[in-house]
Write a structure and sequence with these properties.
Elements (H helix, E strand, L loop, with lengths): L1 H53 L3 H16 L12 H4 L4 H15 L3 H21 L2 H15 L4 H13 L4 H10 L12 E3 L2 E2 L1
Antiparallel strand pairs: 1-2
Helix pairs in contact: 1-2, 5-6, 5-7, 6-7
């Protein structure tokens, strides 16, 4: 019996040690994995820009090229920044936190609220296209938005979306934006020594 208890303790201890080492390795490679995703996204955007150019779809070409530039600069796409992920990268329990979130995400896929949010985002896109002067594409997006929301007319759909867009000018929205979208301040360039008492 004693041997069985000893063997069980060693077995369980091995599992705990192995799991701990794997999680530490996961913490170590998280920034690298994020960089791999960023590179894959950038490559995809480059190819999509080339396809849009060949198809003479100037708007999509500009959008994809813009994404490539922003991914290079690090100014936008903050999700890939190291400083934005320091809590995740240093969290030993991060994988365990993701398990319940996975089930929440799966349950939300068929949720009515999620469907409405997708329709609203498409409506925002239609309004942006309209402001940009891309009326033909905007009309297509408005029609899809109307169908997704189940509205009777395009005018009713436009009023609903534009009323939501007005909320982006509110103080509450601006405060939330300020907390969520923190501007990245690049560190000033280091001075190079050119000689005694001289700097570049």
């Amino acid at each position: 019996m004693k041997k069985i208890i000893t063997f069980s303790g060693i077995f369980l201890g091995g599992i705990v040690v192995g799991a701990t080492l794997m999680n530490l390795l996961h913490m170590y490679v998280r920034p690298t994995y994020r960089e791999v995703i960023r590179t894959k996204l950038q490559t995809e955007q480059e190819f999509l820009a080339g396809r849009a150019t060949r198809q003479n779809d100037k708007l999509r070409a500009v959008l994809h090229r813009w994404n490539v530039v922003e991914l290079d600069s690090g100014e936008d796409f903050r999700v890939f920044r190291k400083e934005e992920n320091k809590d995740i990268d240093s969290s030993f329990l991060f994988p365990f936190h993701m398990v319940p979130l996975k089930f929440v995400a799966l349950s939300n896929r068929q949720d009515k609220g999620s469907h409405v949010l997708k329709a609203v985002n498409r409506g925002y896109f239609a309004a942006a296209l309209e402001a940009f002067g891309e009326n033909a594409e905007a009309a297509r997006q408005w029609e899809q938005t109307r169908n997704m929301l189940g509205r009777k007319s395009l005018e009713e759909t436009r009023k609903f979306i534009l009323s939501l867009l007005e909320q982006e000018k509110s103080d509450l929205y601006m405060q939330a934006e300020k907390k969520s979208v923190r501007r990245h301040k690049p560190s000033p360039p280091k001075k190079r020594e050119l000689g005694p008492g001289l700097h570049n």
